[in-house]
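hey team, just a heads up i'm posting the complex here instead of the shared drive bc the drive is being weird again. everything in one block, sequence lines first with there labels, then the predicted structure for the whole assembly after. its three chains so it's a bit long, scroll down
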Amino acid sequence: MEAYLVAIAIVTGIYVLLALGLNLQYGLTGIINFGHVGFFCVGAYTAAILSQHGVSLFITLPASAALAALAAWPLGLVSLRLRDDYFAIVSLGFSEVVRLIVTSERWLTNGVQGIPGIPRMFADLSGMSQASAVLGLLLVLNLVAIFAMRRMVSSPFGRMIEAIRDNEEAVKALGKDPARFKLRVLMLGSALAGVGGAVYAHYIGFIAPEQFIPLITFQIWMAIIMGGVGRVSGALVGTIILMVFMEGSRFLRDVLPFISEVEMASVRIGIVGLALILFTIHRPQGLMGDYTRK
Amino acid sequence: MTVTRRQTLAGLAGALSLPAFSGVSFAQAGGTFRIGALNPVTGAGSPYGSGMQKMILAAVEAVNAAGGAAGRKLEVFAEDTQTQPQAAVLAAKKLIEVNKVQAVLGTWASGVSLAVMPLTNEAGAILMNTSGAPALSVAPANAKGLGYRFQATNDRFGRAFAEIAVKEGFKRAATMAFNNASGIGNTEGFRKAWEAKGNKVVESVVYEPNQASYRGELQKVLAAKPDVIVTGSYLADTTIILREWFQTGENTKWIIPGWAANPELVKAVGNEVAEGLFSVDSVSNEQAPSFKVYDEAYRKAMNQGGLSNVYAAMTWDMVITLALAMEAAGPNADVAAINAKIREVANPEGTKVYSFAEGKEALKKGKINYEGASSVLDFDQFGDVTPDFGVSIVSKGTIERKYVVKI
Amino acid sequence: MRDIIELASIGLVSGLVIGLAALAVTLVFGIARFANAATGDTMTLGAYAALIGTAWTGSFLAGGALGIAAGAATGLLAYHFVFKKLEQRSSVASLLASIGVGFVIRAVLGLVFGHGQQVFQLPMVRPFRIYDIRVQPNDLKIAAAAIVTLVVVFLILHATPIGRRMRAVADDPMLAKVSGIAPKRVMIALWALAGGVSAVAGVLLGMKTVVSPEMGWEMLLPAFAAAVLGGIGHPVGAVVAGILLGVAQEVVSPLVGFTYKIALTYAVLLGVLLFRPRGLFGRNEGVR
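-- predicted structure starts here --
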C-alpha cells in the first residue's frame, strides 16, 4: 500500500512541477500556453537519450531543463507578439509538432517504438528506499522552484510580469517591451516542465511519443484552475485533487461495480468537464484563491 | 501570490495521506493466489479489452470450480490500462502494491507492456501479454524471464504476410503502416521476409491516424502500381482507406491483419469494397477441445462467437496455463517455482490436455502439454509462442477461412 | 501534373470540411470573442444525430437536418447554461469552460453510443474521369453540401436583419450596443448558427471518415489553425484558410513525408503569422 501511495505521490510531484511552470506563465504573466506537454516531452526525451549514452543523472536533469527552455525560445520569439489567443493555438500546435518530430525521427528517438530501459534514479537503492529517494528529490525540486518563484515575485522582474498580466498596454506605454519579459517567463516555465519530463522518464523507465498528447496539457490547466490561478498553493492543491480524482475513480469502481470500465472512462471525462465549467463560472479564483481580489 | 509554508506542507501531507480510498477491504489472504487483469478496456484496445477481462474472470471461475490450483483459489483484481502507458503504470502499481497480485495478465499494447514489465520484474511477478513488439522478448524488458507473450510478434506476422503473398503469386507488393510500434512492426517484418525471398517492396508509406483523408498516401502507393498492398493498420483507418481506395477505381488486392479486417470492417465498407480482401490472423486453436470450452464461455459473456476476439482466447489461456503451472509446482509454491513450471506444462512432450480440470488429473500421472484455445502454446526460450496463421478471404460479405500458414 | 491536380482536388474537399469547422470557430470568436473548443465535439454530436436521423427516416437529407438541429440546440444550450454567465469575464474563462463543455458532450456521446466506430452507409461507386482526372461522386456530394452550407451562412450574414446585426456586433460591440442592437438576440442567433455549421462539418467529416466519440476533437486543431490563419473573426478568411490548409497538406506531404502531414498545418500557420500577425484577412483592431 505504501509503495502505491508513494508512486502516486511521485506522479503528483511531477505534475506539480508542471503546474508550477504553467502557473508562472499563465497565473503570474498571463501567457496562455496550451503547449506545455511539448516541453515536458523535450525534457523526457533529453533525459532518456542522454542517459542511454551513460550520462549521469546530475547532468540529465539540468540538460533537460536547458533544452526545454531552449525549445521554448523560437516559439516565444515568433509568437509572443501575437494576440494572447493566437498564442494559445500556436503553442498547442507547437506541442503537436514536437510529438510528430519525436514520432518521425527514428534515428534520434527510436520513433514509435519508444525508448525502453531508461536507467532509474538512485539505482543502487531498491524497492521502497529507491522510491522514497525519488520522492525526496521531487520534494527538493519543488521546494526550490517554489522558493525561487516567491523570490521572483517580490523582485522588480516579478512586478513587471504581473503588470504585463494586468495591463499589457500600460506596460507598453511605459516604453517596456512586454514580449521580452514574456519570452523569459515562457522559457523558465518550460524549464520546469523539462525537469518534470526528465524525472518522469527516469521514473517510468519507458517513453514513447503517444505519452505526450495535448490531454496532459489540459489536465495541468485543470489543476491550476481548480487550485487557484496565480498561487503556488493553488498549483499544489489543484494537482492533488486531480490525482485523487484520477486514481480515486479506480477504487470507485470497486464500490460501484455496475458501472463498466468503458462507461467509467466516459464518466471520468464528463466529471472533468463539469468541474472545469463549474469552477470557471462559480469559483474563478480556485479553491485556494484570494477571496478579496477579483 | 501569497503562500505560507504551512499551506505548502499541508498540501504535501495531503498528497501522502491518500488512504481515504483504501477503506475498500480486500479479500482475506492465505489460501488464495491473486492475479491482476490489466486490460485495454478503454482507448485504442477497447474493442478487445472487455472480452479479455471477462475471459480472465471466466477462466478463473472454471479453475476454482475444479477445486483451485494446488489447493489455492484464484482471485482476480481488474484494472483498465486505458491503452496508455502512464495510466497502466499506476494501475499496475495499484495491483501489485495494494492488491498484492503475483501475476499480471493481459496487457495488450506494446507500449503498455514495455512500461509495466519493469514493475512486475521488480516485484518478481509474472507478466503475460498479448503485445507484438520484438523488444519484449529480450533484456532489458524480459531480463528475468517472467514475461510470456501469447500473441505472435509483429515480426512473425510480417513473415506470415510474406508467405501468403508468395503463395498467392503476388510480385509487386507495397505497404501501408499506421504510425505506431505494431503497425510498423508488421510491415517491417513483411519487408524483411519478402526481400529475403528475393522480392522488392515497390512503395511503403507510414501514416498518422485521425485524418480527414488518406488519399494522398493512397495515391503515392498506387502510383507504384502494386498488385498487393500489405498493411499494419487498425479498424478505423482501414475503413477510411478502403473506402477511399475503392473510389479511386483501382483494383489492387489487400492483405490486412485480422484485428482490422474483421466483420465490423466488412459491415462498414460494404460487401462490394470488401470483396477479395485477405484477412490474416493468428489462428485460435479452433479444432481443439480447449477452444470449444472457451468459445462457450465467450458466447455466454459477450453474446458473440469466440473467434471475434483472438485476444480473449489468449487471456483465457493465460489463466489456465498459470493455474496448471501452480498445480505442477505444488502447494504453497512461490512465484519463482510456479514460473519454472510454465514451459513444463505448456510445451511438449507430455499428455495433451485441453482444460484445467483435465490437466489437474493428468498431472498426477506425469508430464502434461496444455494445448490452448489461442494456439498450441509452446513457449520458446524468450517466452514467445508461434501460432499458425489463418488466411481468410472476404467473399460476398463473409470472411471465410481459406487455409492455414505455418511459419 | 495529373497527380498534383488530383491531390489538390482531394485537398479541396478536405479543406472545405476544415473550412466549415473553422467558420464555426470564427463566428463565435468574432461575436462572443473567445476560441470555442467545444466546436469539435459539437461536430461529433451532429454526426451522431445525423446517423440516428438517417436510420430512422432512411434519408441522408432528413438525417442531416436532424444533425443540424441537434448542433444548433447544443450551441444554444451551451450558451444558455455556460457562456452567457461568462460574458463579462476574460476570454480565457470562456475558452476553458468550452473545453469543459466539449468534455461533457464527449462523455455523453461515449455513454450513449459506446466507443466503437459507426459509418454512414454511402453508396461506394467507382470514379469517372474528366480530362483523365479522377472525380469521385461522393466527393462531389460532400463538396456540394459544404458549398450550399457556406452560401446559406453568408446569405444569413449579409442579407438578413439578424445577420447584419451580428456583423455589426462583430465589428464594434460598443457601437452596436449604442445603436440599440439587442445583444441577447444576436447571441441566440449566433449560437444556433455556429452549432448548425459545426454539425454540418461533423456530418461531412463523418461521411468521409468514420464516426466515433473522438472524431471532432481530433479535427479541432486544424479548425483552430484555419480560423487563426484566416484572421480570427473573419468568415471568408476561415473558409479560404481551411481550403488552403487542406490543399497544402495533400500536395506538400508526399514531398516531406506523410507523418508530417499534420505538422504542415502549423508550418503554414507560423509562416503566415510571421508576416501577417493578424492572419490572412485579419484587420488591425484598435482594441482587443
